[in-house]
Design a protein that fits this description.
14 helices; single chain; about 80% helix; about 350 residues; about 0% strand; mainly alpha
Length: about 350
């Protein structure tokens, strides 16, 4: 592998570690409900940090947006809004089908859909070439790994007595998983189909590492709308606005901001890594990014004691899944080597 490829894969890997870690601070915020923590995360990670970084790293930012075609701006904003819907549907889906099955289905659909569809649309000639075949094979291997992780989660639930074999609305929950997975992949769509913004940022004087920031800022602003509306709905429904005032440890505010910093930091690094992987970087880098994201989340779950009391069988399924995901990364990376 050449140096640029190794650098790109390294950046995408680090990005996945950051994004897979962003929810870990929530476990240290017991005085707040989910909607309180998530609203602060959305404000910092989807609105404040993206635009701060965007203004700081892209010269003549207004000119970049004004010079970009309206169709590109609309696509990026639309894909971002749909991604926000997908992240909201995630919470609704797992409440019906369970965390293990829902997580595996949604992330599996997101990783494969977010790579294969753009390749089929923009680079159909590559589907049967080395890179395309490696991506298809790696995506198939990834699905196998996700299946092992789903088995691990289901087994752990049974071991700990938290499983619920008769969840209501299971079929509807599966439909939500499918839509959540498809919509969540739209973040990568915005990166790929919004490349005109990156090019104009480069022409404006932005570095190649930061040139994707105009895409990310616009994308996550669209996603912020969906997350904000859902948080406000829950805050009104559960009457938890007062939690911000009554349960107000300063550490919770800092941890909420840290969530946003980790999440958006991962997004920026993904853009840096994908750009280093060449013309197909956003297509090849996406499944690697999603896989590392899953592995990092599993690590923090283990550190926080989520697997304490689980059987040996559950742990074997878990580590088998992680191993298969690493094989998938190797296959996709080898296919992109020149």
């Amino acid at each position: 592998m050449n140096q640029a490829l190794l650098w790109g894969i390294g950046m995408v890997t680090l990005a996945g570690i950051l994004q897979g870690s962003f929810a870990a601070p929530m476990k240290r915020m017991p005085a707040w409900r989910w909607e309180n923590s998530w609203l602060l995360f959305a404000l910092s990670g989807l609105l404040i940090f993206p635009w701060m970084v965007n203004f700081a790293t892209v010269p003549n930012l207004a000119g970049v947006y004004l010079g970009t075609s309206p169709s590109t701006l609309i696509q990026v904003l639309l894909f971002g809004t749909l991604w926000g819907v997908g992240s909201t549907l995630f919470g609704l889906a797992i409440s019906r089908v369970g965390m293990a099955l829902g997580f595996a289905l949604i992330l599996g659909i997101t990783s494969s859909f977010g790579s294969l569809i753009p390749m089929a649309i923009l680079h159909s000639e590559q589907l049967l070439a080395r890179r395309g075949l490696a991506l298809i094979a790696g995506s198939a291997i990834m699905v196998l790994g996700l299946a092992f992780l789903a088995l691990a989660g289901r087994t752990r639930e049974k071991d700990l007595g938290t499983g619920n074999g008769a969840r209501s609305g299971f079929a509807f929950g599966l439909v939500l998983c499918i839509f959540s997975g498809v919509f969540s992949s739209m973040m990568n769509f915005s990166f790929i189909f919004g490349d005109e913004l990156r090019v104009r940022a480069l022409q404006s004087g932005a570095s190649s590492a930061m040139a994707a920031n105009p895409i990310w800022a616009l994308t996550v602003t669209g996603g912020f709308v969906a997350n904000f509306l859902y948080c406000v709905y829950l805050l009104n429904k559960n009457r938890t606005w007062s939690v911000f005032r009554e349960a107000n440890p300063s550490a919770h505010w800092l941890l909420g901001v840290l969530m946003g910093l980790l999440w958006f930091g991962g997004t920026v690094l993904y853009g840096v890594g994908a750009a280093s992987l060449g013309a197909l970087g956003g297509i090849v880098g996406w499944p690697i990014f999603m896989t590392i994201d899953i592995i990092a989340a599993l690590f923090w779950g283990a550190v926080s004691g989520e697997w304490r009391g689980a059987s040996r069988r559950a742990l074997i399924y878990n580590w088998a899944g992680v191993g298969v995901l690493l094989v998938a990364i190797g296959v996709i990376s080898a296919g992109n080597a020149t």
